[in-house]
Amino acid sequence: MADKRKSVTARLAELGVALPPCPAPLGAYVPTVRDGGLIYTSGMLPMADGVLTLTGPVGPGGHPAERGAEAARLCALNALAAIAAELGGVEGLERVARVIQVTGHVLSAPGFADQPQVLNGASDFLFQVFGERGRHTRMALGAAALPRGASVELAVVVRVEP
Amino acid sequence: MADKRKSVTARLAELGVALPPCPAPLGAYVPTVRDGGLIYTSGMLPMADGVLTLTGPVGPGGHPAERGAEAARLCALNALAAIAAELGGVEGLERVARVIQVTGHVLSAPGFADQPQVLNGASDFLFQVFGERGRHTRMALGAAALPRGASVELAVVVRVEP
Amino acid sequence: MADKRKSVTARLAELGVALPPCPAPLGAYVPTVRDGGLIYTSGMLPMADGVLTLTGPVGPGGHPAERGAEAARLCALNALAAIAAELGGVEGLERVARVIQVTGHVLSAPGFADQPQVLNGASDFLFQVFGERGRHTRMALGAAALPRGASVELAVVVRVEP
How far apart are the C-alpha atoms of C123 and C153, rounded to whole Å? Predict the structure, then answer.
């Protein structure tokens, strides 16, 4: 059970996670928009240092769900990096009052139906980082195709305190 | 034409619909998040008593669109159950001021392009239950894969009165 | 670089674009819902005069990405038409304070992974029309099936001034 009073920064440190730079968009859009107290992210891919860490379908003949879950976690980390950039740095993440919505698409091999297991990689991570504030709604979907062949794409909406 | 002054509870009774319990999440997320006056639901599947009532693709070689529409209606019913749970019970649904957004994904056989007919099962039901307040925006999509092989997945955003 | 002070109407005229009528829904839903200061659109298809201008997959063996981008631009134009109708006419578009979110699905041939290029047709257009206010978050996805076989489907959320 996560300690509600522990800071997000402390939790990231405990997890051994360093926040990467805000991911660069692949087109004519921006990583985040803040509207009132909500921050919307663009679709995040499992990129590290500008390179996709996992491409191709998850499921029979493709990657095991466990590897998909690692990619989903990385997508969520990139979403946090984008939100932090919107809020002026990693300390800004302390202002996240609630993760509202996660939409996750898993590039799926024919017959693969465990998108929830893959996306738990992102959901568990958000809970580890934010505690109860990280408990979100989720839509888990299977995709036939994703940008650059990424195995997972994930977008997030969060509420921030003023 | 639905009577605007008729209660949601009365309409559900007229339709012969009993609200099921709030559906259990398939992963590390929650069925609903309330943020200000909005309630977001997670992706709902056509489950009854914990069992999927329809799996596999809709369209040529799969289920007819009419069966898909029944599944979409059940997804919408589960969304109402989740919203009611968020609001303390079925009477809470009287506070729904507007259904804002419905996002529906239909597991589609190759060549199937009538996702709108399938999702009308959900849209018509929401109009029957809420009247004009049930008129929503919708995104109708075809999916290559959905969790547990469900034929339909549907998420809803509603505005509630204080 | 777009001039922030130029009116939306003037920019549409410069682009040689006439706003079409609000697109008719394909089912039991409405083109837009206004909730507070946000307008949500339904999924828009590349329709002109009630006819789809592009159907079938984009990518190897299908349409080139450039044609998909034209279709995405048309989807965005239809979204603007729907938003204008919600706001009482084309002049209403001057009240758009920010394009918040674009969700785009591209009907994708096997092996096609450049959904971002396709959706740039919509994103670039929104920037041309709204300038900095048009810079949005985006989710770019590949679809296995879309309503009526449309090559692109796109939904938009915008903030409007009172």
Answer: 13
